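New to this. Please check this protein:
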Amino acid sequence: EQGHDHLIIGYPAIVPKHYGNFGLFTHHVYRVRPLPDSSLTNHFIYLLLLTTTVREQVIAHTNGTTVNALAKSGIEQAAFALPAAGRIAEFERIVAPIFDQQEVLFDESRTLAELRDALLPKLLSGELRVSAKIKDAVT
């Protein structure tokens, strides 16, 4: 519910690389990217949008009587202190591997879920049996 409690409005999300470079957008969703010549990065912008200071500014630009909406200008007008390009590059050097690892873990989780979904019915039906050696190694 996005209503007047601002439960989702203004919150950023990163679409996992697994889904590709396409997206489904509605009039309630904006894609925010740094300009080509900007020192800003996607990770910096994402985490910036999660800060209380910027989030409160974005929420202040919402309007609507039954369902809150956010005009594009609500994001564009947010004010914040911009670090020097070198600081942003250093920040990116630190956080990029964390986000990359998150992608790897996302993919591994999907693979494990698919494996579970394929094996569990066979284990429950008795079609597939587990040897005692494997059971001892797991416990």
About this structure: Strands lie at 62-63, 69-70. The longest strand covers residues 62-63. The two ends are 43 Å apart (CA to CA). Helices lie at 42-50, 52-60, 72-76, 85-125, 132-138.
